[in-house]
Structures are given as structure tokens and as C-alpha cells.
């Protein structure tokens, strides 16, 4: 930009990652619904042989949503937000533009290989770290490429101040780089034993050490994939969509540093009542409780940004998505710490309350925020109005209903499970057999599956609306200032 000329941003990489977000979202969420119906109706597991079993499909679902859908959304928004808050275009650096495109293609190939290998049953069997070492190396490559993009754009920026959203993107990059490398240190089986597979590997850790490193990584995969970059999105897109300034910039910075310090120590709450030293379990529980403060600090800051402008909820569906996302963030970040309290964990652990907690966070907070961010971006990257407001509204209510059905059924199912498992008679014998709990929970599993199906239908509406926006929305003469334009 010379002499005050308008910057022409390059959205080619953002468009590629937007496509990936929708594709992997469809794959991950569809498999989630299939798995939910399998739990409610186990005979469905036999329809496709070994490749249709719960154990084969579940890792594809979790990885597809976490590292397919969510990471694609993070990268798509980065290549949009990064240019805008730094006041620099990728067009000005052919090198960074090439890096961005290489980032996408390496990432896309990596996730496709992840789907194929997990479908084939090639897995380390470690939660959120199922991929074998050759694919881990590809993850490192595309992560380094993203880092070059982040710090490369920062290096040529025109805007001196780094807006708070950038802090959260940078935290995501640095923390995952550290966590992923340490947790995925592994050796090929053939190298260890002299025979076996060169693809399959064994962890360099064992026993309790392996558990500690795994959940140091596992919980912080939630912290720095499902949390910090999503906060980066809402700190940018909510003020942009509403035309309001962030309520408190100081609070955003305090919450940032609180999250950075506390989150890294909370992973021990996954190992309560295990062989991990008791002081580590207690530290995990205590840090989880302390985590409420910075988490709610961020969420309240988001909600207070709408102070005096709540009437926008009546007219702007994207504001409804973002406000409800913040509300689900508050719900999820008080529910997790409650579950980490030892007395509560004794009832909650291994029950369906845990997936209930995970999904009200991922579906209500993460996915709502990513979809609303892409809807905000769409008129600006495609130069067209959002295709249909009625589809947008229908999507919102379908998915909100689906989330409520999902988490309420799983709360009830989980607490019921925990209480039945702990019920003893006067002789100290268990009152209920395992199959008794399975029978009692069947209605709740069915409700969960229906809720997931409603959410999936809403996601297909999202995908269709995005496609029609890019191809058939009314062409805009100029970029909208605040609220995203929608066709009547």
C-alpha cells in the first residue's frame, strides 16, 4: 500500500482451507453420527465388517474433527485475519504466498493419509496421537510452514501493534509444536526388535511416564487447538461483525497470560485415581479449578463486547452464533473443572458425562465459532452476499437443538452410570450388573444420536449455503463494513 492506497488482500490460501474445513467437517461429523447410532443400535456395527466397527471409525471421527475440521478452520481464519490485522497482503511477498499454498497441500495430504491409515487400523492407540511416525513427520512439516507464515507476515507488517488475536494464534503454534514433538517421540518396532513393521512404532516412554506425557499433551491439545485459536477468532470476528470494540483489552491480556500459565498444568486431572503420584493428581485438579478464572475472563469479555447492542441478536444470526459459542465456552470451562474434583471424578470418570462435556465444548463453542467466522469471511473473500438468511437461521436452530439434546442426554446417562456402578447392597455386593446400566442408558443413547443427526443436517445446510454463496450469491460492489450482507 503506497500513498494511502487500499490494500488488496490475497485470499487464495484462505479459500483453500475453507474448502478443507467443510470437507473434513462433513467426514468427521458424519462418522460421529454413525458412531452414535452404533452405540444406540449395536447391530449397525456389523454392516461393513471390520471397517465399520466402532473401534475402527472412532479415531477417524476424533482426528477428523480435531485435526481436520478444526485445524482447517484455524488456518483459514489465520490467512484472513493475519493479513488484515497486520495491514499487509500475501501478494506483497511471493515467498510467503508460496509457503501458504505449500502449507495447504502438505496439510491436506497429511490429513488424507491420516484418514486412510486409521481406517486401515494403523494406529499408535494413544488418544489424539494415533498417527504413526511417518505421518507425524508430515505434521511437523506443515506446522513449521505455518510458523513461517505467521512470523513472516509479522516481520513485514505495517501495523506496529500486535492485536490480541495474534497472541492466541502464536500461542497455538508454539504450544502445539512443543507438546506434539515430546508426546510423539517414538521408535519403529522393527528398529527395536529387529523384526516387525517399519510403520508401526512404540513410544519412547512407558507406564506412568507415558501416561503423564500423553495427558500433558492430550489435555493441551484441547487447550491449544480447541481453545486459544478459537478465542483468537472471536476476538476478531465478534467486534467486526457487531461494529463494537472489545469490551476490555486489559482483560483480554490478563486472561491470555492466565490461560498460558494454568492450562499447561491441568492435564493431570485425566489421571485421577491412577498410578500417577497423588500430588500430581491434586495439582491437576487444583489447576483445573483455577482455570475457571482466565476462561471466564475471556468469555465474559466476549459477552460484554455486546453491551448495549443486544438487539443485534434479533437481526444478525452470526451474532447469535458467536454469543451462543461464548456461552457454551463458559459452560464447558466450568463443567471440566467440576469433573476434575476428586469426589466428582469418582462418579464421572469413564461415564458418558465425559463425552457430553467434550461435545458441548466442541459443537457449541469450537464449531459454532468456526462456522460463523467463515460466514463472516465469505462475502469478503468471494465478493458475494451470503446466499440465504433463512438457511442460516434454520441451521442455527437445528444445531442448537442438536447440541442441547446431545449434552443433556449424556449428562443424565453419565451420572446414572456413575451412580449405578457405585451402588452396593448391605452385604457390600454390587446391586447392578454392567448389562443393567447398558439397558437403562439405551433411550439416552438414542436421544444423543438424534441430536447428532440434527447437528449434521445443520452442517450440510452450512456447506450448501457456503457453496451457493461462493458461486451464486449476489455480487457485491464493495466490501461490507460491519454485518455480513445476506440475501433476503
TrEMBL record:
Pathway participation: Energy metabolism; oxidative phosphorylation
UniProt-annotated location(s): Cell membrane
Catalytic activity reported: 4 Fe(II)-[cytochrome c] + O2 + 8 H(+)(in) = 4 Fe(III)-[cytochrome c] + 2 H2O + 4 H(+)(out)
GO CC, alphabetical: plasma membrane
Enzyme class: translocase
Positions with a binding annotation for heme b 2; high-spin: 357
Residues the entry annotates as binding heme b 1; low-spin: 61, 359
SUPFAM superfamilies: Cytochrome c oxidase subunit I-like
Record Pfam families: COX1
TM annotation in the entry: 16-40, 60-81, 102-121, 133-154, 166-183, 215-238, 247-266, 286-305, 317-334, 362-382, 403-424, 444-464
Co-factor remark: Binds 1 copper ion per subunit, denoted as copper B. Binds 2 heme groups per subunit, denoted as high- and low-spin.
GO molecular function annotation: cytochrome-c oxidase activity; heme binding; metal ion binding
Assigned keywords, A-Z: Cell membrane, Copper, Electron transport, Heme, Iron, Membrane, Metal-binding, Respiratory chain, Translocase, Transmembrane, Transmembrane helix, Transport
Primary site of residence: membrane
Topology with respect to the bilayer: Multi-pass membrane protein
UniProt domain Cytochrome oxidase subunit I profile: residue ranges: 13-488
Cofactor: heme b; Cu(2+); heme
Cited InterPro entries: Cyt_c_oxase-like_su1_dom, Cyt_c_oxase-like_su1_sf, Cyt_C_Oxase_1, Cyt_c_Oxase_su1_BS, Cyt_c_oxidase_cbb3_su1
Protein residues bound to Cu cation: 219, 269-270
Family: Belongs to the heme-copper respiratory oxidase family.
Name of this protein: cytochrome-c oxidase
